[in-house]
Amino acid sequence: MTQLKDARSGVVTPEMVKVAEYEQVNVDWLREQMACGRVVIPANRRHARLVPCGIGEGLQVKVNSNIGTSSDRAIPEEELEKLRVSIEAGADTVMDLSTGEDIDGSRKSILAESTVAIGTVPIYQAIVETVEEKGALIYLDSDKIFEVIEKQARDGVDFITVHCGLTSAALELLKNQGRITNIVSRGGSFLATWMLHHGRENPFYAEYDRLLEIAEKYDVTLSLGDGLRPGCLADATDRAQIHELMTLGDLTRRAWEKDVQVMIEGPGHVPLDQIETNIILQKKMCNHAPFYVLGPLVTDIAAGYDHVACAIGGALAGAAGADYLCYVTPAEHLCLPSVSDVREGVVVTKIAAHAADIAKGNKPAIERDRQMAVARRNLDWETQMKLAIDPKKARGYREQNPPEEDDVCTMCGKYCAIKQVKEYFRN
Ligand code: SF4
């Protein structure tokens, strides 16, 4: 039984009740949104500590944080700290992208501690173990892929990225058309290498029904990955990307037929003026399945500040209809992020998501800003701290720079504009 199957059968699950309460929406409306695939609740039955979160149309835009070891830096305790910091900073989900030592151990400890939905990219573990056991990724076989998927599902993973739409036909388009950055998705590059070496179809695509069986059994939500997402502005919205998206639309329908929850992953690097087009295309081609954008980064030259480039694109994407934003940290394109990079990435992406919620008319989001405005007018610093997206940082600035008069701040001091005119206005 999956959340989707329950929704279609008219059953309101405890997860739906919790999500409806959090979002301040009617639970029957939520169930209907889920029944037609517009909302997912990634909630593996085996993830014991999960507090469920809904993703999709009519709900607040959600934020994902990526953590996980790499082959060059594998300190599991540091990744657990990134998990804690992500949740504390407001991440709605976390993806464990570990490729370092003991991937099983890292995932299990993350799942045991996490109260938010955990996602993975199982092809990473399948490739790492194939390289360890057989010496090269070309020796990967599909049994290995599905073994890893089932193992991760059994452990309680709530959603998995699977690059099912990266077909031989899409690769052919990419080769013929040409690109500057070819393939920048790690999972996409593994699969493309294997497919081009063997001249065979993508196993995720060829054996899609096998994947659906596992997803249905554990209620693992499929995040249909964009292995051919553009890695630079010049490659955005090209034939290969759109071909993959069209395939994902078809695979969405097939998943829904088996009661499997689905969301769609999207670009990547996209110029501002193409973001809305990308959202319209995804929603249209994938029957309004939730859209999970990886950025999008609106410029290629923001190294060191890519979280800002991502927030600009994320805000516009969210306002145009994207449902879920994958964060980017200041370390993007440069190195594995530190704990503080992770925190910074989550907060900046939460600002983008919140700005999008306001633009879409989300009432709780609008109300929070209204309350902040009132607190500012009243020079009510305690309420301002509580409502701030990052109270820790806001409080830190104020405490480090105490004003001479308590009710103002050191920006204008005794010439505080708000205080100056207060007595002349009604409010
Ligand atoms: S001192 Fe200036 S910046 Fe600070 S609260 Fe007053 S008007 Fe705002």
String of helices and strands: HHHEEEHEHEHHEHHHHEHEHEHEHHHHH
> Could you say what the CATH architecture of the largest domain is?
Alpha-Beta Barrel
**Mean of residue pLDDT values:** 96
Assign the CATH topology of the largest domain.
Answer: TIM Barrel
> Which class of secondary structure composition applies to the elements?
alpha/beta
Determine the N-to-C terminus distance: 54 Å
Cofactors and ligands: iron/sulfur cluster
What can be said about the biggest beta sheet?
Answer: 8 strands, parallel, barrel
At the first level of CATH, the class of the largest domain is Alpha Beta
The strands making up the biggest β-sheet line up spatially as 3-4-5-6-7-8-9-10
Strand content: 5-15%
Globally, the shape reads globular
Q: Unreliable runs, pLDDT <50, ≥5 residues?
A: none
Total E-strand runs: 10
Helix content, binned percent: 40-55%
CATH superfamily of the largest domain: Radical SAM ThiC family, central domain
How many domains? The number is 2
For this structure, the quaternary state is single chain
Radius of gyration over all CA atoms, rounded: 22 Å
Determine the number of helices (DSSP H or I, runs of at least 4 residues).
19
